[in-house]
Amino acid sequence: MRLRTLAEVVDHLGASGQTGIIDGTEIRVRRPAVGRKDRDVFISGKSKQNAVKTVVPTDQNGRLLFCSPTRPGSGADITHARQLGLVKLLLVGPAVEILADAGYQGLGAQTGGRVVTPPHRKFKKNAPDWYEEMHERQRKAHSSRRIRFEHGIAHLKNWRAPARHLGRREHISDSVQAGAGLLSQQQTADLDPRRQR
To answer: Do residues 180 and 155 lie in contact, with contact meaning Cβ atoms separated by under 8 Å?
Structure first.
């Protein structure tokens, strides 16, 4: 599967009638040199390390479909998805359901409910027992639908470049996308019934 843009991913999911799963992943990189004006841009708010982020959509079976170009790690996942044009693609494209984690809360309202995130927590303190049980049940149901993504991204992280990149940051997008293409080829070949004899 050689999908080269997010638009192709949305079209593929719409044509096949599958639910997509999307998330961002961080790749550790070397720290920029002292004195560079954009040195702090690469520090991730989540891991507190120098990193770049990429948005990775998979299908409902966890098969990797695409890896976006990398962005500095200080940006939020939802911002990266908006910059890639995900909101517009879901509004004007085919009816596709996309599962996302809590980092994408807010996209559901912007896309007419096509991006599904875990439920908001309505009670900050002193929540009733019935609410706690209901919220936990909904959260687990959403998480169990998204677990395939975690398996898919784990296969990508088996490649050394997406685990930790020691080369130049300018080349990491090419390395990650090449690894994603090879993994997608491997996953597609594993589904070929002629190879399962």
So the answer is: no
